[in-house]
Amino acid sequence: MAQGRLAGKVVLLTGIGGGMGRVTAQLFASEGAMVVGCDLNAEGAAETVRLVEAAGGAIDSSVPVDLGRREDVERWVAEAAEKHGRIDVLYNNASMPRFAPFAAQSDEDYLFTIDNELHLVWRACHLAWPHLAKVGGAIVNIGSVAGIQGARALPQAAHSAAKGAVLALTRQLAAEGVAHGIRVNSVSPGVMGTPPILAMYEALGENAPVAPIVERTITGKPGDPIAVAYAGLYLASDEAAWVTGTNIVVDGGAHAFM
């Protein structure tokens, strides 16, 4: 494979079993990264590995890794560092929110969302931090426009709370990372054409809760997940060596227009 924008870099990538994680794994591997992925979904992760290797890329996969369990994350990070000798990038893609109107959402579902959208980012960053400090590495956290702006038609209070916290954590880690040469940035997607969103449109059409957001985008359609992956690629690469503490919004302009 030709030298790429991530040539020689070892990239930890969470949630490779499908959607944006799969697309990101394919793109990063095509740019020369050694992708070390994890997921709970063994079948989905295996398909991602097949696709990456068929295209000539390098990828390892650990399944199942429950990012809600510190011991699982610790084992995944340690094995990657031992096998590959270094960790250059941590890309926190995985998330598992539960949606409901604020007044109706259970405490259980709220806490589940916080654990599976915020705490998993904290754990991975915490455990990868010493390895990243050795090489002056980078962290890319996937946030969301939900952490920036409310949505009247989409009941997402728990998701918004978690992703807003991810964006705040990103800024603070960037500040603390300066002393260690660690860059920390985030990408905030809008409504992307992932399998759950496409299934929602297939079932509900124009009545889909995300429709009022999507209609404000530059295309009037959900975004292609590759757009998020390309933003993450920039932040993970040496091209962004002077970029830390920033958030790139990839939402087709929906948050910017009334």
From TrEMBL:
> Is-annotated flag, keyword Ribonucleoprotein?
no
The family database entries (PANTHER family) matched by this protein are listed as: DEHYDROGENASES, SHORT CHAIN, ESTRADIOL 17-BETA-DEHYDROGENASE 8-RELATED
Oxidoreductase as UniProt keyword? yes
Provide the family line.
Belongs to the short-chain dehydrogenases/reductases (SDR) family.
Q: Which GO terms describe its molecular function?
A: oxidoreductase activity
Keywords, A to Z, come to: Oxidoreductase
Q: Output the InterPro entries linked to this UniProt entry.
A: NAD(P)-bd_dom_sf, SDR_fam
Query: Which CDD domains does its entry note?
Result: SDR_c
What superkingdom heads the lineage?
Bacteria
Query: What is this protein's record name?
Result: SDR family oxidoreductase
